[in-house]
Amino acid sequence: MKNSTIIVLVGALIIIVGAGVFFLKKNIEYKKDTLSPVVVPTAPVVTKDTSKEIDVQVPEVQAIDKTKTVIGASVEKRDITAYHYGTGDTELLFVGGIHGGYGGNTVLVAYELMDYLEKNTNKIPENIRVTVIPVLNPDGLNVVVGTPGRFSPSAIPTKEKTIPGRFNANMVDLNRNFDCDWQSEGMWQNTKVSGGDKVFSEPESQAFKKYIEGNEPDAVVVWYSAAGGVYSSNCHNGISTETRTLTKMYARASGYPAHEEFNFYEITGDMVNWLAKKEIPAISVLLTNHQDTEWNKNLKGIEALFAYYAKQ
User: Which of 11, 46, 100, 157 minimizes the number of CB atoms within 10 Å of its CB?
Assistant: First the structure.
């Protein structure tokens, strides 16, 4: 009796322990299954801070109405860029640096205009869009000052050392490569210069031509150096009434003398005269020397154009 009781008790204990182990195992498996989705997510955790990407995009949307357009590239593949200010339908185009480093101060005055427009957006009449091409000949500028873009005025060397920068990398004078009296060999003072193998043979002049024909600006001002004066454009079709008005207006406001033609020596393939052939009012503004931008004088001329075209 005593032995059978022990056997029963042992058997019961075995059953109880076995049941406990079974339920304990199931409980652990249950917890493991319920915790698995949390510990090992089915989708990867995104740790990239996307807010930083949004911040990067903010500067692209600015209060000022300025955009820029790469209109082409130079022989040595440097960008030629046009910068736009304002959103009006009347476009005024200002151009510097057609003679690269030889006319380095024409590049600087164009950048001064850009700085002015950045800081004084309220000065641009609502109906006007101002476009500035500061460097039409970046290769020629790079030869002289070591950069195709903005530089310090102190980087401009003596006039003699700037002469190689007058031409593009093909040694073509870009202001002899346009379609008005074009010749393969032109003159610069008493020196013969290349006008290119054919009219618009150079990528820089092609870029400018494409921009003009695609946008048809209402008036164009091109800075050169150096003679100190404002010159009307003309390609055997007479000076247009609008060009004559621009010449007198810019000269009167700036203090430069006004001239109906550039007659120091024969000019062939001139860019501004080609604009006249395209019936686009255009003037050449020749700075007095090769160092100074004469910004205050030019600003007065620019403001006079703004006032005039604001009424058109």
Answer: 46
